[in-house]
Design goal:
Blueprint lengths: L12 H9 L3 H13 L3 E2 H8 L3 H13 L3 E5 L10 E5 L1 H25 L5 H16 L11 H13 L4 E7 L2 E7 L4 H4 L3 H19 L3 E11 L2 E8 L3
Antiparallel strand pairs: 1-3, 2-3, 4-5, 5-7, 6-7
Helix pairs in contact: 2-3, 2-5, 3-4, 6-9, 7-9
Length: 237
């Protein structure tokens, strides 16, 4: 059930894959360290510079390599031992990092302005999210109908096109969408109320457009490290 609208906001597939890869701030930091090094670094050296475990860094590097922002070679070794893989930022990485930084700055400017605009700033952010959530998806034409599970799946798929990484846990008529690698993550560190309100609004708007079988009533930030939870409930309609 393909419910994602074709509109100017949706980029081509290659560009969207880069966008999703850079939705994780850790990957952006890795790219920045590789560019600053001006040469090749192995996973252990990168891990030391970004403060992550080497295995975590290797996982991030695989994602970056899949979108051609990082390349790797096997080092020449003149002594016993297994040769290491060393990584370099590609020529495309610079423009990608600069674009990501530009979007982060714009997001910081807009969220900080909205946060200081008045007591109803979270309500305004949620309303904006609902409007855009409706825009990102498309309901089935009549007389076709959809089930709650199909509506949730279509909503999750639509948001994943823009960098969200989500999984759904269901129990009878209640569902929990667990979200990690939020593309708003860095901005949420300083403006959580605004960012989470936008995110909840996106979910509400998408579900409302897809049908009337599911409603989102709450979004809990950071129920565990790096994971937020949206709580959904099936309606009686």
């Amino acid at each position: 059930m393909d419910k994602i609208k074709s509109h100017p906001v949706v980029r081509d597939e290659a560009e969207m894959r880069v966008h999703r890869a850079l939705s994780d701030p850790s990957r952006v930091r890795i790219l920045e360290k590789l560019r600053a090094a001006g040469g090749s670094l192995d996973a252990a050296a990168i891990a030391d510079r970004v403060g992550l475990h080497a295995n975590t860094v290797r996982s991030h590097l695989r994602v970056l390599a899949e979108v051609a922002l990082v390349s790797h070679t096997t080092e020449e070794r003149r002594r016993p031992g297994r040769p290491r893989l060393v990584y370099q930022a590609t020529a495309e990485a610079g423009a990608a990092v600069e674009e990501a930084a530009g979007y982060r700055l714009l997001a910081e400017i807009l969220t900080s302005y909205l946060a200081g605009s008045g007591q109803d700033s979270a309500d305004t952010a949620e309303a904006a999210g609902r409007a855009w959530g409706r825009y990102l998806v498309d309901r089935q034409p009549p007389p076709a109908t959809s089930s709650p599970v199909e509506e949730i799946e279509a909503m999750v798929n639509a948001l994943q096109e823009f960098g969200f990484d989500s999984a759904v846990e269901s129990a009878e008529r209640e569902h929990t969408v667990l979200m990690q690698h939020c593309p708003f993550g860095e901005v949420a560190e300083s403006h959580r109320k605004i960012v989470c309100s936008v995110h909840l609004g996106l979910i509400q708007g998408a579900l409302a457009e897809l049908g009337s079988h599911v409603e989102a009533d709450e979004l809990q930030p950071f129920v565990r490290p790096g994971v937020c939870a949206a709580h959904l409930e099936e309606t009686t309609v």
